[in-house]
Write a structure and sequence with these properties.
Length: 330
């Protein structure tokens, strides 16, 4: 049976995932700043209050530590809360609850307490939101044991990731990307089960492995298509899960291609790319025909002007030029 494809924006795919989660389980509810009457800071939850009511779509006070803590308590009590933190920089205000409660209670209780809370955060660079609201801070949260960290780099994952995240007995943090909200792509109309413990090979290739996540996925796929016209066959891996990291997928890839570049918007120092590079050196050194390369965000607070904002993070041309140099193409 052929799967039906439909056009959808990234925003609408996220909303479909939310709606289906609410429809499928009465224990699921959404809470966050402006998620109800306003329809969400980025209109992802627009219309859901009218559809599901105030007990399922809950506006909360401007206190990230308070309402994330309430979500953790609800999860312990048997509910399935989806907590929206408006942007990742506000996630710092909830770090105490995430680090000292959500990630630790299962371990400190000897397995007696599970914390199946799902926390969604808007992340990434773009849309001229300035230095206070333009961050890829996934590496900060991926450092913390006891959490599952997911990065939504495609429309397909935006539609399907909540279904799998809500099945987890451990706290799940989902990073969504504001720069992609209006981007339209074809996705399967049917909801699918998503493996939230596995990376995804988005494009098969034999010459070089391009490893990325989040808003880097579509950029790397576009770069791979351009490289193909030059005779370079690039494999593109979407990490998807940043903790626990699925190293088997990218180690298998580099054992085939013998070259690797890691692309991420986050700052280069102490990043996801640092971790992947280290694991390749530890576990795939003799498979490499060239040093592992990294293409990351420039280490400055993100500028407001659009041309400087674009210059601060990897773009398609940067990926193409870096790979060409690695492959010895002029």
């Amino acid at each position: 049976m052929k799967m039906v494809q439909t056009n959808s924006t990234y925003r609408e795919a996220l909303k479909q995932g939310l709606r289906e989660a609410l429809q499928n389980d009465e224990r699921v509810f959404l809470m966050g700043e402006d998620v109800g009457r306003y329809g969400g800071a980025f209109a992802v939850s627009k219309g859901l209050l009218q559809e599901f009511g105030e007990e399922r779509i809950m506006d909360v006070p401007l206190s990230e530590s308070g309402f994330v803590g309430a979500g953790i308590g609800a999860a312990i009590a048997g509910m399935k809360p989806i907590v929206e933190v408006m942007t990742v920089n506000f996630g710092l205000l909830a770090l105490d609850q995430i680090v000292n409660n959500a990630s630790t209670l299962r371990h400190m209780s000897g397995g007696q307490l599970n914390v199946p809370v799902v926390i969604r955060m808007s992340s990434g660079i773009g849309r001229q939101l300035g230095a206070q609201h333009s961050h890829s801070w996934e590496p900060i949260f991926a450092h913390i044991p006891g959490l599952i960290i997911l990065s939504v780099g495609t429309h397909e994952d935006a539609r399907n990731i909540l279904r799998s995240a809500l099945k987890s007995q451990d706290p799940v943090l989902i990073f969504e990307y504001t720069a992609m909200l209006n981007l339209e792509k074809e996705i399967p109309s049917e909801i699918q089960n998503l493996a939230i413990n596995q990376a995804k090979v988005r494009r098969q290739g034999k010459d070089i492995s391009i490893i990325t996540y989040g808003s880097g996925v579509y950029k790397c796929l576009e770069a791979a298509d351009e490289l193909a016209t030059m005779g370079i066959d690039a494999e593109v891996i979407d990490l998807r899960v940043l903790r626990p990291m699925d190293e088997a997928t990218f180690l298998t890839s580099v054992s085939k291609t013998h070259r690797a570049i890691i692309v991420e918007e986050a700052w280069r120092s102490i990043s996801v790319s640092s971790e992947i590079s280290s694991r390749m050196m530890e576990k795939a050194f003799y498979d490499l025909d060239a040093p592992v390369e990294r293409l990351c965000g420039i280490e400055v607070p993100i500028p407001y002007p659009s041309h400087l904002e674009e210059a601060a993070i990897p773009q398609v041309n940067d990926i193409v030029n870096k790979v060409k140099k690695m492959m010895g193409h002029d």
